[in-house]
Amino acid sequence: MKRFQRKKKKENKDINISNIIDSEIKGNSIRQGFSKGIQSYSQRFDKIDYKSHKDLTHIPFVTVDGENSKDFDDAVYAEVNNEKIKILVAIADVSFFVKKGDPIDVEARKRGNSFYFPDRVIPMLPEILSNNICSLIPNQIRASLVCEIILQNTKVIKYKFHRAKILSKARLTYKEVDEIHKNNSKNEISKLVDNLFKALETLKKISERRGKIEFKVKEYEVNFTNDKEFKFEEKENYKSNRLIEEFMVLANNVVATHLNSNGVKSAYRNHEKPKDEKIKELKKSLKLTNIKEIKNFKAQEDFNYYLKKTFSNRTSFISELMLRAQSKAYYDIKSIGHFGLGLNHYTHFTSPIRRYSDLLVHRDLIEIIFNKKLNTNNKELTDHLTIQEKKSDELERKINDRLCSIYIKNNNRKFFTGMVDGIESFGIFIKAIELPFSALARFSKFNNNDESLNYKFGQIVSFKIIRNNIKNGKILAGNVKILKKNE
To answer: Residues 286-315: pLDDT tens digits?
Structure first.
């Protein structure tokens, strides 16, 4: 028996993360690698002629991304004076290289998007394109589609599009941009960053005025020491994250508005109002957390009412309740608007290296503006892109659950704190605070005299892990005790 336990312990310790992710990728039939034909076809882009692109290499664009990013879809620039703000968002012109119906396009359409995992990326496009030829690498001339927008008094008064060649001045990270802005040094990059943040203040006012819902949910990333050792770390929320988000939302909205006004059946990004049953469930959940004032949730401002409040260490939990009530966003050839962003028209235009929907939008925009033609898309394709996106999200969640399970086992950790985020006839669900996992505590495991029968939704509790299944990431909890009464 002891020998068996030693063997089992050794097997657990020797768990290979890459093998686990491999099994999930294969189990979900994710397309990997590229055929020799596609790789050979990709070599034809060695010599590039940018004569069809306007020369905007004099504009000092910069890219702002995460530290580990390799594919740079977007670059930004802003000019600010007392009356007007000019914003330029340059997006990699993938459609210049990937033509409709060519081998790379056919493969990209099947994939729908790139798939991101803790230890790797399965790209939508061959890496010679995604990480090099299309990517807006600093100090390299690159083809782009530029959205130029003029703002005055927090309103878009003018916009135009350029198919242009650009030259990014710098590849900056979110952390670097925040530090540059904070230090306020006097150099060229600092001046560029300063203008970006000045533009951000206006964009934030615009977002607030239209009622954009401001969710505040904890996000985690996995940092590897090696293939068997890793840890979860909470992502830092930099001001520059919001900066890039607002710039991209602005460009996506302008593009969608233009396409819709010209009757283009493009790949719009729709987000409907929450369903009545979801609102009913949200109201019930809020009442269970002892929140006294319950809104109707017919408009974005009702959600923001709670999101702007501070609920001690339950703020992220309340935000997740609001997020859980939302409808799922999807792609469609008809535009109905985006409830969460408070926009009448929205699309995905800013990431054509990693999303096929954006590549479609680029083609539609180029046809209507530069070729005076009307592209047509079909609902079967937009439905396919929604399915592929959903598959990516579900796979990410499944791998996250398994990695949490492995991390807990490897560190021999038994006790956690969390919040009750579900109550059923058979038990309660607890969302851990320290790590991104949930556990089920079955009532059959509770003692009859235990106060656990009085648990309420949203309560902070301590619990012990009594069963941890690393094959599926499912965790059972016991010894659940209340740590803090409801507020």
So the answer is: 888 888 889 999 999 999 999 988 776 678
Asked if 424 and 440 count as a contact pair (C-beta separation under 8 A), the reply is no
pLDDT at 206 over 50: yes
Nearest 5 degrees, angle CA 308-CA 312-CA 315?
A: 45
| Per-residue pLDDT tens digits for 240-269 | 999 999 999 999 999 999 999 999 999 999
pLDDT at 363: 98
> What's phi and psi for 269, nearest 5 deg?
-105, 105
Question: Coil, strand or helix: which one is 239?
Answer: helix
| Among candidate residues 291, 307, 323, the one where a domain is terminated | 323
Element (DSSP H or E) covering residue 366: helix 356-369
Rounded to the nearest angstrom, the gap between the alpha carbon of residue 81 and the centroid of all alpha carbons in its chain is 32
Distance CA 315, CA 169 (A): 39
What's the confidence (pLDDT) of residue 482?
87
Average pLDDT, the chain: 91
Question: Last residue of some domain: 406, 436, 461?
Answer: 406
- 333 contacts 379 by C-beta, under 8 angstroms: yes
2-13 and 379-410 helices, crossing angle to 10°: 130
Cα-only R_g, the chain? 25
**373 and 461 in a common domain:** no
Strands 170-173 and 62-65: parallel
**DSSP for 99-125?**
-TTSHHHHHHHHH-B-EEETTEEE-SS
Average pLDDT over residues 116-139: 95
Mean pLDDT (whole number) for 426-432? 93
Q: What is the pLDDT of residue 89?
A: 98
Does this model's pTM top 0.70? My answer is: yes
Within 13 Å, how many C-alpha atoms sit on residue 126's CB side?
Answer: 22
Residue 169: name the closest of 146, 190, 147 by CA: 190
Whether 151 contacts 200, CB under 8 Å: no
State which residues form the domain around 267.
Answer: 16-272+327-406
Whether residue 61 is found in the same domain as residue 109? yes
